[in-house]
Amino acid sequence: MIRRLVMLLFPLFLSVAHLAHSQEVRKIVFLAGKPSHGYGAHEHLAGCRILADTIERAMGRAVECVVLSNGWPADESILDDADTIVMYCDGGDRHPALPHLETLGKQMDRGAGFVCLHYAVEVPKDKAGAEFLRWLGGYFETHWSVNPHWTAQYIELPEHPITRGVPPFSANDEWYFHMRFPQDMQGVTPILSAVPPPETMRRPDGPHSGNPTVRKEVAEGRPQITAWAFARPNGGRSFGFTGGHVHWNWGRPEMLRLVGNAIVWTAHLPVPEQGLAIDAPAVGELAEGQDEPTPPQLNLEDIAKQFQLRK
Questions:
Q1: Number of domains observed in the structure of the chain
Q2: pLDDT tens digit string along 12-70?
Q3: Residue 146 to residues 65, 198, 235, 241, Cα–Cα distance (Å)
Q4: Is there a smaller number of Cβ atoms within 10 Å at the N or the C end of the chain?
């Protein structure tokens, strides 16, 4: 009798458990880096707040966003139940993850999502290159990757949850390219690709500016990947995005939706068929909340025109 009752109730238990899991609130932790490049650039904290607000507005009670400053949490336990960790910060030898690779590795091993924006995709090859290949699916490697400012023309976007509702667009930013990816690109899906103009190779060779291999590829007109999705073998999801130097571009609905979609995707939340509902901040809103004081000569009219922003 008890056995029959258990057999009858077991499917009900499974359906209730599935419902509870589907209604679980996903936690996204943003790790915003310290002040960096001056007004209007590398605005890590302001950018994270815009992305967090966008995601919470679009996803409602399905998500909780936590935005932390100074690059790394004082209490690392806040990462233990994060469904996705977003890093928007300076990189290279100053990357906040470098002293905490063991901690970050544990989060990756349990399947947490991982997102790196702009400079956060760069780590020293000999200190964290192998780890970022495993965790992010690619990274900026000095003397291989380059960081010119240019207007990228994204003419075709692949069919992917990250690109839902994102039309072809162009944007001027410091788009890194010629990233270091796994040799077979296994698990990597290019999301944004564009052909860099010859002007991107005007600088002499250097750790960030050029090398014979990338010069050859640009001369041949090869498309370069500037954003990618990565499906990790353990089920974790990652996203690398090389734009984000220019703070004003967070007022572009195409970029805001694409990155918002990507963060939601890495948290294993369903991306709406038309992408996240976006209310892109106007130029005046973007001007507020930055790390540095507003310059007295700032002309918001010109900025709105240059970056195609809402006034």
A1: 1
A2: 443 333 333 345 899 999 999 999 888 999 999 999 999 999 999 999 999 999 999 99
A3: 32, 13, 30, 14
A4: N
Q: Is the pLDDT of residue 141 over 80?
A: yes
3-state secondary structure the chain: CHHHHHHHHHHHHHHHHHHHHHCCCEEEEEEECCCCCCCCECCHHHHHHHHHHHHHHHHHHHEEEEEECCCCCCCHHHHCCCCEEEEECCCHHHCCCHHHHHHHHHHHHCCCEEEEEHHHHECCHHHHHHHHHHHCCCEECCCCCECCCEEEEECCCCCCHHHCCCCCEEEEECCCECCECCCCCCCEEEEEEECCCHHHHCCCCECCCECHHHHHHHHCCCCEEEEEEEECCCCCEEEEECCCCEHHHHHCHHHHHHHHHHHHHHCCCCCCCCCCCCCCCCHHHHHCCCCCCCCCCCCHHHHHHHHCCCC
The more confident residue out of 163 and 183 is 163
Q: Residues 34, 39, 45, CA angle at the centre, nearest 5°?
A: 35
247 lies in a domain?
Answer: yes
Domain that holds residue 270: 25-140+227-307
CA atoms in the 13 A half-sphere facing the CB of 227 = 25
In a domain, 159, yes or no: no
Question: What would the two tokens of residue 16 be?
Answer: 């209730």
Opening angle at CA 118, ends 114 and 123, nearest 5 = 70
| Inside any domain, residue 283 | yes
Alpha-carbon distances of 287 from 56, 209, 253, 296, rounded to whole Å: 21, 30, 17, 12
pTM: 0.91
pLDDT tens readout for residues 149-181? 999 999 999 999 999 999 999 999 999 999 999
